């Protein structure tokens, strides 16, 4: 069979996203009748808001079902620009926006357009997996710089180390803020310093702010678009609809770049996906422009804040878990080394044991890191009902207590 020819080595070596692996396994067990409580995959449990769904139905009724321009329909790009400019005072223009099939595709385009063989990309560790995997796909080398942990401030960027790791091969630094998987929000002065390092060394910065609305401490979050008036000189900005409007399955995100590079990026996009789904784009216009969707989004974030507090209190009762209360996104990233030592398990054995024996899905830190930052941590999503948070963590606590007693 022709397909048995050697598949490119780089593809075989690509990591997947552990969240999707655990999701599949949990579905398989649930189909066999096992009760499962999942803190795994990163998506809000609230359905997409009604007004957005209605707009999509209308788009279908009006047969708005063909290809659109690759960059996305103008009303959508105008709505995105208005949002960014009103919120961050950033002066983004519609022709500096490329609408993508989810934020993930925006990450892909940004890396594909700039990273080639031997180029180094500095990524803070732990990290959302696509940054590293797409870098490798194009022959680049991820350079991981662990976040620092400060008892009071939580996870911080290690700016000294980032600067130290810049070499003559470095092309890009990645900044994801608010941060998946730790729930950190990096301070304004940290972001400023990171941008300064990038400017000094003439590096691009890929900024992913997909969680910019999931901020639980007022005034903590500062977008690079607000901080850097000259963003178009070196920033590739990623955001999207998946999280804010609970639209993960609609596949709608965007990349903001200077107009001069938007043009070649559009040609790249045409060759990859032609355009984002037309129906989702109409839904996106409604999401951005109708205040009802923003009210729903705000309610969702308030709800998630309460859930975060509940999860924090519950996790603190689990033996061997060191918990830091996240400030943004919808994840907790406790350090579980002491629990693992007591159980005599590595983190992946631990999370698989929890799933298979106790029906609780949590993700091993190794899905977000190849270093100690992965081996000693787990990620839990609190985009899950309060009842499930309490019941799931109770199951987790009991499982550990029974095993180590
Ligand atoms: C940091 C980060 N960036 C990008 C994405 C991808 O978002 P989308 O579903 O819009 O492709 C995710 C999804 O979990 C994420 O956590």
CATH level-3 fold name of the largest domain: Aspartate Aminotransferase, domain 2
Task: Provide mean pLDDT, rounded.
Answer: 95
CATH superfamily of the largest domain: Type I PLP-dependent aspartate aminotransferase-like (Major domain)
- How much β-strand is present in the residues? 5-15%
First-to-last CA distance: 55 Å
Question: In total, how many beta strands?
Answer: 14
Instruction: Identify every distinct bound molecule in the structure, by name, code or SMILES.
Output: pyridoxal-5'-phosphate
Count the domains: 2
The chain-level structural class is alpha/beta
Arrangement of strands in the largest sheet: 2-10-9-8-7-3-4
Write up this protein:
- This protein has 405 residues and is of the alpha/beta class.
- It has 2 domains: 2-34 and 294-404, Aspartate Aminotransferase, domain 1 (Alpha-Beta Complex); 66-290, Aspartate Aminotransferase, domain 2 (3-Layer(aba) Sandwich).
- It has 16 helices and 14 strands.
- The strands form 4 sheets. It has a 7-stranded mixed sheet with strand order 2-10-9-8-7-3-4, sandwiched between helices. The protein has a 3-stranded antiparallel sheet with strand order 11-14-13.
- The chain is globular, with a radius of gyration of 21 Å.
- The structure holds pyridoxal-5'-phosphate.
- Pyridoxal-5'-phosphate binds at residues 42, 102-104, 128, 176, 180, 208, 210, 240, 242, 248, 253.
């Amino acid at each position: 069979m022709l397909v048995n020819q050697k598949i490119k080595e780089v593809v075989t070596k690509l990591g997947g996203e552990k969240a999707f692996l655990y999701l599949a396994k949990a579905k398989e067990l649930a189909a066999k009748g096992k009760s499962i409580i999942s803190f795994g995959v990163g998506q809000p449990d609230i359905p997409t808001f009604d007004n957005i769904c209605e707009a999509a139905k209308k788009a279908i009724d009006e047969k708005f079902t063909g290809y659109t321009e690759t960059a996305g329909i103008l009303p959508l790009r105008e709505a995105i620009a208005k949002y960014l400019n009103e919120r961050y005072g950033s002066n983004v223009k519609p022709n500096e926006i490329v609408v993508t099939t989810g934020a993930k595709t925006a990450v892909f385009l940004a890396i594909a357009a700039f990273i080639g063989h031997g180029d180094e990309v500095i990524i803070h560790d732990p990290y959302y997996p696509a940054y590293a995997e797409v870098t490798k796909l194009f022959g680049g080398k991820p350079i991981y710089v662990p976040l620092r942990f400060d008892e009071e401030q939580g996870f911080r960027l290690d700016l000294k180390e980032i600067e130290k790791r810049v070499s003559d091969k470095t092309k890009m630094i990645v900044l994801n803020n608010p941060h998946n998987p730790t729930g950190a929000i990096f301070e304004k002065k940290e972001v400023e310093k990171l941008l300064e390092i990038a400017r000094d060394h003439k590096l691009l910065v890929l900024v992913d702010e997909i969680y910019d609305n999931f901020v639980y401490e007022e005034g903590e979050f500062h977008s690079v678009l607000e901080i850097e008036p000259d963003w178009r000189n070196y920033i590739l900005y990623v955001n999207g609809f998946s999280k804010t409007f609970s639209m993960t399955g609609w596949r709608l995100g965007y990349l903001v770049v200077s107009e001069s590079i938007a043009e070649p990026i559009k040609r790249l996009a045409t060759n990859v996906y032609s355009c984002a789904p037309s129906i989702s784009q109409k839904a996106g216009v409604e999401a951005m422009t109708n205040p009802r969707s923003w009210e729903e989004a705000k309610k969702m974030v308030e709800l998630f804040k309460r859930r975060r507090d509940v999860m924090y209190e519950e996790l603190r009762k689990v033996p061997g878990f060191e918990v830091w209360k996240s400030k943004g996104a919808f994840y907790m990233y406790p350090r579980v080394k002491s629990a693992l030592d007591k159980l005599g398990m590595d983190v992946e054995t631990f999370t698989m044991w929890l799933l298979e024996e106790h029906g609780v899905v949590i993700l091993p830190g190794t899905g977000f890191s190849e270093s100690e930052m992965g081996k000693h941590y787990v990620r839990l999503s609190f985009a899950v009902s309060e009842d499930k948070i309490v019941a799931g963590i109770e199951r987790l606590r009991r499982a550990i207590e029974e095993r180590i007693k």
